[in-house]
Give the backbone structure.
Amino acid sequence: MRIAVVTLFPEMIGAVLDWGVIGRAIDRGLLGLGTVDPRDFARDVHRTVDDRPYGGGPGMVMKVGPLREAISAARQAVPAGSPVVALSAAGRRFDQQAARELAAKPGLVLLAGRYEGIDERVIERDVDLELSIGDYVLSGGEIPALAVIDAIARLLPGALGDPDSAAQDSFTDGLLDCPHYTRPEEIDGQRVPDVLLGGDHEAIRRWRFAQALERTWLRRPELIDESALTEEQRDILHELKASGTHDS
Ligand code: 9D3
Protein backbone atom coordinates (compact mmCIF):
# COMPACT_ATOMS: atom_id res chain seq x y z
CA MET A 1 0.00 0.00 0.00
CA ARG A 2 1.14 3.55 -0.75
CA ILE A 3 0.08 6.48 1.45
CA ALA A 4 0.64 10.15 0.62
CA VAL A 5 -0.04 12.66 3.39
CA VAL A 6 -0.89 16.26 2.48
CA THR A 7 0.39 18.35 5.40
CA LEU A 8 1.95 21.70 6.27
CA PHE A 9 4.12 19.81 8.82
CA PRO A 10 5.76 16.94 6.89
CA GLU A 11 8.43 16.42 9.59
CA MET A 12 5.71 15.31 12.03
CA ILE A 13 4.88 12.30 9.86
CA GLY A 14 8.34 10.79 9.30
CA ALA A 15 9.45 11.31 12.89
CA VAL A 16 6.86 8.86 14.23
CA LEU A 17 6.57 6.27 11.48
CA ASP A 18 10.21 5.22 11.21
CA TRP A 19 9.79 3.12 14.36
CA GLY A 20 8.38 -0.26 15.36
CA VAL A 21 5.76 -2.10 13.33
CA ILE A 22 5.32 0.74 10.81
CA GLY A 23 9.06 1.24 10.29
CA ARG A 24 9.37 -2.49 9.62
CA ALA A 25 6.41 -2.46 7.21
CA ILE A 26 8.18 0.34 5.29
CA ASP A 27 11.54 -1.51 5.35
CA ARG A 28 9.84 -4.68 4.05
CA GLY A 29 8.22 -2.72 1.21
CA LEU A 30 4.68 -3.44 2.44
CA LEU A 31 4.04 0.26 2.94
CA GLY A 32 5.28 3.28 1.02
CA LEU A 33 4.88 6.65 2.67
CA GLY A 34 5.37 10.17 1.35
CA THR A 35 4.28 13.70 2.15
CA VAL A 36 3.19 16.65 0.02
CA ASP A 37 3.36 20.17 1.48
CA PRO A 38 0.78 22.65 0.13
CA ARG A 39 3.27 25.45 0.86
CA ASP A 40 5.41 24.13 -2.01
CA PHE A 41 2.52 25.04 -4.35
CA ALA A 42 1.99 28.60 -3.10
CA ARG A 43 3.25 31.05 -5.71
CA ASP A 44 3.28 34.36 -3.82
CA VAL A 45 6.39 35.69 -2.12
CA HIS A 46 5.01 34.81 1.35
CA ARG A 47 4.03 31.27 0.21
CA THR A 48 0.54 31.83 1.62
CA VAL A 49 -1.56 28.73 2.34
CA ASP A 50 -4.32 30.27 4.49
CA ASP A 51 -6.73 33.20 4.38
CA ARG A 52 -9.42 34.89 6.48
CA PRO A 53 -12.85 33.24 6.66
CA TYR A 54 -15.69 34.77 4.63
CA GLY A 55 -18.32 36.00 7.08
CA GLY A 56 -15.70 36.85 9.67
CA GLY A 57 -14.80 35.10 12.90
CA PRO A 58 -11.61 33.87 14.53
CA GLY A 59 -8.89 31.81 12.89
CA MET A 60 -7.86 31.18 9.32
CA VAL A 61 -8.96 28.75 6.60
CA MET A 62 -6.73 26.68 4.30
CA LYS A 63 -6.90 28.17 0.80
CA VAL A 64 -8.21 26.20 -2.19
CA GLY A 65 -5.36 26.82 -4.70
CA PRO A 66 -2.25 25.36 -3.03
CA LEU A 67 -4.29 22.65 -1.30
CA ARG A 68 -5.85 21.39 -4.57
CA GLU A 69 -2.46 21.33 -6.27
CA ALA A 70 -0.98 19.42 -3.32
CA ILE A 71 -3.85 16.90 -3.45
CA SER A 72 -3.26 16.43 -7.21
CA ALA A 73 0.44 15.78 -6.61
CA ALA A 74 -0.43 13.33 -3.81
CA ARG A 75 -2.87 11.46 -6.10
CA GLN A 76 -0.07 11.01 -8.64
CA ALA A 77 2.05 9.37 -5.94
CA VAL A 78 -0.54 6.66 -5.09
CA PRO A 79 -2.20 3.97 -7.25
CA ALA A 80 -5.43 4.70 -9.16
CA GLY A 81 -8.45 3.89 -6.98
CA SER A 82 -6.87 5.28 -3.80
CA PRO A 83 -9.43 7.36 -1.88
CA VAL A 84 -8.72 10.88 -0.60
CA VAL A 85 -9.44 10.88 3.14
CA ALA A 86 -9.54 14.13 5.12
CA LEU A 87 -8.89 14.05 8.86
CA SER A 88 -11.55 16.25 10.39
CA ALA A 89 -13.07 16.69 13.83
CA ALA A 90 -16.41 16.75 11.98
CA GLY A 91 -15.78 13.41 10.23
CA ARG A 92 -17.16 9.92 10.78
CA ARG A 93 -15.56 8.17 13.76
CA PHE A 94 -12.51 6.10 12.79
CA ASP A 95 -12.70 2.58 14.23
CA GLN A 96 -11.23 -0.90 13.63
CA GLN A 97 -13.82 -1.61 10.93
CA ALA A 98 -12.79 1.55 9.04
CA ALA A 99 -9.13 0.53 9.48
CA ARG A 100 -9.88 -2.88 7.90
CA GLU A 101 -11.71 -1.26 4.98
CA LEU A 102 -8.91 1.23 4.31
CA ALA A 103 -6.20 -1.46 4.64
CA ALA A 104 -7.81 -3.21 1.65
CA LYS A 105 -7.27 -0.18 -0.65
CA PRO A 106 -4.25 0.02 -2.98
CA GLY A 107 -3.29 3.37 -1.46
CA LEU A 108 -4.57 6.47 0.31
CA VAL A 109 -4.22 10.21 0.20
CA LEU A 110 -4.57 11.54 3.75
CA LEU A 111 -5.34 15.23 4.09
CA ALA A 112 -4.31 16.75 7.44
CA GLY A 113 -5.78 20.19 8.00
CA ARG A 114 -4.48 23.06 10.12
CA TYR A 115 -6.05 26.36 11.27
CA GLU A 116 -9.85 26.44 11.69
CA GLY A 117 -10.26 24.10 8.73
CA ILE A 118 -10.26 23.58 4.99
CA ASP A 119 -12.29 25.55 2.42
CA GLU A 120 -15.49 23.48 2.04
CA ARG A 121 -15.19 23.42 -1.75
CA VAL A 122 -12.09 21.23 -1.43
CA ILE A 123 -14.03 18.81 0.78
CA GLU A 124 -16.92 18.76 -1.72
CA ARG A 125 -14.90 18.18 -4.87
CA ASP A 126 -11.68 16.44 -3.83
CA VAL A 127 -12.42 14.45 -0.66
CA ASP A 128 -14.07 11.00 -0.61
CA LEU A 129 -14.32 10.52 3.16
CA GLU A 130 -13.85 12.56 6.36
CA LEU A 131 -12.63 10.78 9.49
CA SER A 132 -12.36 11.86 13.14
CA ILE A 133 -10.37 9.88 15.72
CA GLY A 134 -12.59 10.88 18.66
CA ASP A 135 -14.50 13.61 20.42
CA TYR A 136 -11.73 15.88 21.67
CA VAL A 137 -10.16 18.96 20.09
CA LEU A 138 -6.68 18.64 18.58
CA SER A 139 -4.80 21.40 16.80
CA GLY A 140 -4.59 19.72 13.42
CA GLY A 141 -4.96 16.54 11.41
CA GLU A 142 -1.37 15.25 11.62
CA ILE A 143 -1.72 13.25 14.84
CA PRO A 144 -5.02 11.75 13.60
CA ALA A 145 -3.29 10.88 10.29
CA LEU A 146 -0.55 9.08 12.25
CA ALA A 147 -3.16 7.16 14.24
CA VAL A 148 -4.93 6.09 11.02
CA ILE A 149 -1.65 5.05 9.34
CA ASP A 150 -0.59 3.05 12.41
CA ALA A 151 -3.93 1.20 12.63
CA ILE A 152 -3.84 0.39 8.89
CA ALA A 153 -0.16 -0.57 8.62
CA ARG A 154 -0.35 -3.27 11.27
CA LEU A 155 -3.18 -4.91 9.28
CA LEU A 156 -1.08 -5.25 6.11
CA PRO A 157 -0.24 -8.93 5.54
CA GLY A 158 3.28 -9.58 6.89
CA ALA A 159 3.48 -6.37 8.95
CA LEU A 160 3.37 -8.13 12.32
CA GLY A 161 6.60 -10.10 12.73
CA ASP A 162 4.95 -12.94 14.62
CA PRO A 163 2.05 -14.35 12.56
CA ASP A 164 0.48 -15.48 15.87
CA SER A 165 0.00 -11.84 16.92
CA ALA A 166 -2.40 -11.26 14.04
CA ALA A 167 -4.33 -14.43 14.88
CA GLN A 168 -4.42 -13.51 18.60
CA ASP A 169 -6.03 -10.20 17.73
CA SER A 170 -8.94 -11.92 16.00
CA PHE A 171 -9.39 -14.35 18.93
CA THR A 172 -10.76 -11.56 21.15
CA ASP A 173 -11.73 -9.32 18.21
CA GLY A 174 -13.90 -6.43 19.33
CA LEU A 175 -13.29 -7.10 23.06
CA LEU A 176 -10.93 -5.33 25.44
CA ASP A 177 -7.64 -7.12 26.08
CA CYS A 178 -7.12 -9.58 28.95
CA PRO A 179 -4.50 -8.77 31.67
CA HIS A 180 -0.84 -9.64 30.97
CA TYR A 181 1.98 -10.74 33.30
CA THR A 182 5.68 -11.48 33.03
CA ARG A 183 8.39 -12.46 35.56
CA PRO A 184 8.67 -12.47 38.52
CA GLU A 185 5.78 -14.60 39.83
CA GLU A 186 5.32 -12.37 42.86
CA ILE A 187 6.09 -8.75 43.67
CA ASP A 188 5.21 -7.35 47.14
CA GLY A 189 2.44 -9.91 47.51
CA GLN A 190 1.00 -9.33 44.02
CA ARG A 191 0.91 -12.79 42.47
CA VAL A 192 0.51 -13.87 38.87
CA PRO A 193 -2.81 -15.77 38.62
CA ASP A 194 -2.21 -19.50 39.22
CA VAL A 195 -3.87 -20.59 35.97
CA LEU A 196 -1.12 -18.84 33.95
CA LEU A 197 1.61 -20.79 35.78
CA GLY A 198 -0.02 -24.20 35.30
CA GLY A 199 0.60 -24.97 31.61
CA ASP A 200 -3.00 -26.08 30.96
CA HIS A 201 -3.38 -24.25 27.67
CA GLU A 202 -7.10 -24.89 27.35
CA ALA A 203 -7.67 -23.50 30.89
CA ILE A 204 -5.48 -20.47 30.02
CA ARG A 205 -7.42 -19.85 26.81
CA ARG A 206 -10.74 -19.95 28.71
CA TRP A 207 -9.40 -17.72 31.55
CA ARG A 208 -8.10 -15.10 29.11
CA PHE A 209 -11.35 -15.05 27.21
CA ALA A 210 -13.39 -14.74 30.45
CA GLN A 211 -11.14 -11.88 31.61
CA ALA A 212 -11.47 -10.05 28.30
CA LEU A 213 -15.22 -10.52 28.32
CA GLU A 214 -15.57 -9.42 31.98
CA ARG A 215 -13.52 -6.26 31.42
CA THR A 216 -15.52 -5.44 28.33
CA TRP A 217 -18.81 -6.06 30.14
CA LEU A 218 -17.74 -3.80 33.03
CA ARG A 219 -16.01 -1.02 31.08
CA ARG A 220 -17.48 -1.00 27.56
CA PRO A 221 -20.69 -3.10 27.55
CA GLU A 222 -21.76 -1.51 24.24
CA LEU A 223 -18.94 -3.41 22.51
CA ILE A 224 -20.43 -6.82 23.28
CA ASP A 225 -22.41 -8.34 20.44
CA GLU A 226 -23.91 -11.53 21.94
CA SER A 227 -24.89 -12.81 18.52
CA ALA A 228 -21.19 -12.86 17.51
CA LEU A 229 -20.24 -15.12 20.46
CA THR A 230 -19.97 -18.91 20.36
CA GLU A 231 -22.18 -20.92 22.75
CA GLU A 232 -19.21 -21.45 25.11
CA GLN A 233 -18.53 -17.71 25.07
CA ARG A 234 -22.20 -16.88 25.72
CA ASP A 235 -22.18 -19.26 28.70
CA ILE A 236 -19.14 -17.47 30.16
CA LEU A 237 -20.91 -14.11 29.71
CA HIS A 238 -24.10 -15.36 31.41
CA GLU A 239 -22.12 -16.73 34.38
CA LEU A 240 -20.39 -13.38 34.64
CA LYS A 241 -23.63 -11.41 34.59
CA ALA A 242 -25.20 -13.75 37.16
CA SER A 243 -22.23 -13.80 39.56
CA GLY A 244 -22.38 -10.06 40.20
CA THR A 245 -18.84 -9.97 41.64
CA HIS A 246 -17.93 -6.99 39.48
CA ASP A 247 -14.94 -5.67 41.38
CA SER A 248 -12.11 -5.63 38.82
C1 9D3 B 1 -11.91 24.93 18.46
C2 9D3 B 1 -11.98 24.83 16.99
N1 9D3 B 1 -13.23 24.16 16.61
C3 9D3 B 1 -14.35 25.11 16.56
C4 9D3 B 1 -15.67 24.43 16.70
C5 9D3 B 1 -13.15 23.48 15.31
C6 9D3 B 1 -11.90 22.73 15.08
C7 9D3 B 1 -11.03 23.11 14.08
C8 9D3 B 1 -9.87 22.39 13.84
C9 9D3 B 1 -11.58 21.62 15.85
C10 9D3 B 1 -10.41 20.89 15.61
C11 9D3 B 1 -9.55 21.30 14.62
C12 9D3 B 1 -8.31 20.53 14.37
N2 9D3 B 1 -8.57 19.10 14.48
C13 9D3 B 1 -8.42 18.27 13.45
O1 9D3 B 1 -7.98 18.66 12.39
C14 9D3 B 1 -8.81 16.88 13.62
C15 9D3 B 1 -9.34 16.17 14.75
C16 9D3 B 1 -9.66 16.58 16.08
O2 9D3 B 1 -9.48 17.73 16.53
N3 9D3 B 1 -10.18 15.63 16.94
C17 9D3 B 1 -10.39 14.34 16.55
N4 9D3 B 1 -10.12 13.92 15.33
C18 9D3 B 1 -9.59 14.84 14.45
S1 9D3 B 1 -9.22 14.50 12.86
C19 9D3 B 1 -8.71 16.03 12.55
